[in-house]
Amino acid sequence: MSGALDNRIRVFRAEHRLSQSELADAIGVSRKTISTIEVGRFTPSTVIALKLARYFNVPVEEIFSLSEK
Amino acid sequence: MFHSDESHAQLYDKFLNRIALGLLIVAFSLGVDCMRYFVELEVGEALRYVRRGMTVLLFIVVLPTFIKVMMLRFKNRTACQEPESFIVDIYKNASVHGFTATMLMLLTAQVIVGPDVGVLPTEFFIKVILGGGFLAVAISFFVQQRGSDDDESECDNIEMQ
Question: In b/e form, how buried is each residue of B2-23, taking b as 16+ CB within 10 angstroms?
Fold first, then answer.
C-alpha cells in the first residue's frame, strides 16, 4: 500500500450528471479544487471529503480509498 | 471583467491569482528601480515612467478583485473564509518558497556585501532582496498551478459524454 489517495468523484459526478462547477458550487469550493482532487493533484481535507460524502449521500470510504498499488 | 455567477470560492481563487500576478509586477517594478543605479540619468528618468506604468498596472490587476472580496466580506464575514482549496494550498507553498528565497538572499548578501561595496546604497540591496522574494513567490505559484487548467477541461468533458 503506497498511501496515495484514490477517489471516485468522477464516477459519482457522472452518476449524478453533475459538472465540476455544479459540484464545486454545491459543496462551496472552487472548480479547480474539484478538478485537482479528481486527478490526484490535491489531497482534500477531512472537511471537504465529508462534504462530498454528505452530498452524494454515501460513506466517505466509498469516495476515497488508499491506493493498493 | 467579472462573471456575475462567480461563487465565493471561485472569487477567492481569482483573488489569490491576482495577488500572485501583483507580486510579479512589484518584483519587476523593484527590478526596474534597481536598474536606475546603473544607467544614465536620462535613461533613469525613463525608467521612472516605466515604474509608474507598472504601479498603474498593479492597481488595475489587483484592485477590482480586492474590492469584490472586501465587499463580500463586509456583507458576509464567513463568505471568503474558504479553509482550503488547491489555490490556497499552492499559495501557502509559494509563500514558504518566497520566505526561503528571501532568507537565502539575505545570507548571501551578508557574505558578499562588505564595507567596500562602493556607491550602492543600502536601499538598493533591500529592493533587490524584496524583489527577489516576491519573484520567488510568484514564480513558485504559477509553476505549481501549471497544467491544472488542462485537468479541468478534460474532466468536465468526460461527464458530458
Answer: eeeeebbbbbbbbbbbbbbbbb
| Residues of chain B neighbouring A40 (CB-CB closer than 8 A) | none
Parent domain of A20: 5-59
List pLDDT tens digits, range A11-35: 999 999 999 999 999 998 999 999 9
A9/A48 Cα distance (integer angstroms)? 12
Separation between Cα atoms, residue B155 and residue B105, nearest integer Å: 41
Nearest CB neighbour to B85, from listed A13, A25, A29 = A29
Q: How far, in whole angstroms, is CA B143 from its chain's centroid?
A: 13
Q: What is the ipTM of this complex?
A: 0.84
CATH number at residue A48: 1.10.260.40
Q: What is the pTM of this model?
A: 0.83
Size of interface A-B (CB pairs under 8 A): 74
